[in-house]
């Protein structure tokens, strides 16, 4: 997945804005050490630094980390694969917003997080739940099919039952886990959905030249406009799963 940090900050800032509520599940303790896993361009890392004197933000994208360091040069950011954490008993909290659904190897991810946490340390995370963006994916798949291409789902959107089992297998004790609908208004008016696709479907779109991409966007919009466009803005069919668990 290739991330465009400028597009992300301009048109997907809502991702980190929704993460502000998730921070409320973290105890107020300046002495705690927090890992922001999948920090993107660092906006939530900066928020976390207000409640922690020890904060590290990691992301697998060099571009995102470069942008984060430019925005917040006084914070600690590192390029790192979430499935290859090297820490042992290091963090009081591992925090992650809108990241886990990009990661295929959940068992390895959770094993690494569990090892990185101190005894009684917390995992506080939220990501896409079963059914997330189902209408967008269906419309996008139909458009690709019409040009003899197949949509390959890059996401992991689990049920509560499925993810509870994974957490327990990794050794976590679950405090809260639930899913919920979160219809999400997209910025940029009539261009909101296509800018969303430019970021989150970029791997498949990169197969096409710009003219063909525009045709794809128009066709997806035609399928979804009656359901998701109110004449001024698009609203994406997001569903989220929220997890609070401890070691």
How are the SSEs placed, and which strands pair?
Elements: H1 5-11, H2 14-23, E1 33-37, H3 43-48, E2 54-59, H4 62-71, E3 76-79, E4 91-97, H5 106-116, E5 117-128, H6 134-146, H7 160-170, E6 173-181, E7 184-185, H8 192-200, H9 202-205, H10 210-228, E8 235-236, E9 239-246
Parallel strand pairs: 1-2, 1-4, 2-3, 4-5
Antiparallel strand pairs: 5-9, 6-9, 7-8
- Poorly predicted parts: 7-12
Please name the CATH architecture of one domain: 3-Layer(aba) Sandwich
Assembly state of the chains shown: single chain
Instruction: Choose one word for the global shape.
Output: globular
What distance lies between the first and last C-alpha atoms, to the nearest angstrom?
Answer: 31 Å
Helix and strand succession? HHEHEHEEHEHHEEHHHEE
Helix content: 40-55%
CATH level 1 class label of one domain: Alpha Beta
What average pLDDT do the residues reach?
Answer: 91
Radius of gyration: 18 Å
What percentage of amino acids are in beta strands? 15-25%
What is the β-strand count?
9
Q: Largest sheet, if any?
A: 7 strands, mixed
Q: Number of helical segments?
A: 10
CATH topology name of one domain, in short, is Rossmann fold
Strand order of the largest sheet: 3-2-1-4-5-9-6
Q: State the CATH superfamily name of one domain.
A: Vaccinia Virus protein VP39
Strand-pairing-aware structural class: alpha/beta
